[in-house]
Amino acid sequence: xxxxxxxxxxxxxxxxxxxxxxxxxxxxxxxxxxxxxxxxxxxxxxxxxxxxxxxxxxxxxxxxxxxxxxxxxxxxxxxxxxxxxxxxxxxxxxxxxxxxxxxxxxxxxxxxxxxxxxxxxxxxxxxxxxxxxxxxxxxxxxxxxxxxxxxxxxxxxxxxxxxxxx
Length: 166
Ligand SMILES: NC(=O)NC1=NC(=O)NC1=O
Known about the structure:
By secondary structure, the chain is mainly alpha-helical. The chain has helices at 4-9, 12-19, 26-34, 41-52, 57-64, 79-87, 96-113, 126-136, 141-161, and strands spanning 2-3, 164-165. The site of 1-(2,5-dioxo-2,5-dihydro-1H-imidazol-4-yl)urea (2AL) has 14 residues, from α6.
């Protein structure tokens, strides 16, 4: 977590490295860093959000490389893995039935849409996630691209909140 004025004055590469774990879409981080200096935290977030509106299914596919399946807490030291573990904290690993249902749901979703199911897990219980997964399985391809991109946007901006303080 660094202060806005520090973020504004970091060397380019260091600023990139700091926000890289927010989402695995290099163009987004590059554009956000190039937009410095920002006059307020809200300007950083409005710019960050505006940059996500350009994302399409190709961007989604690129980002998914850094998001483990829901219910599969990633191993590995990378910042992204640590963030995923923390975000999925409310998914009770001890609930065997839930874990099985998530595994089945993930498999059905991947068979239907050809990519990993993505949801903003922070603040959601395992049951909430399972409900959302079943509901989104009914989406059309176009609807589901939009739904997944909205979740990617929420995850990205939540992660950015953890990086830049006032
Ligand atoms: N497949 C996923 O939805 N993964 C994730 N959701 C989060 O909120 N963090 C993740 O890693």
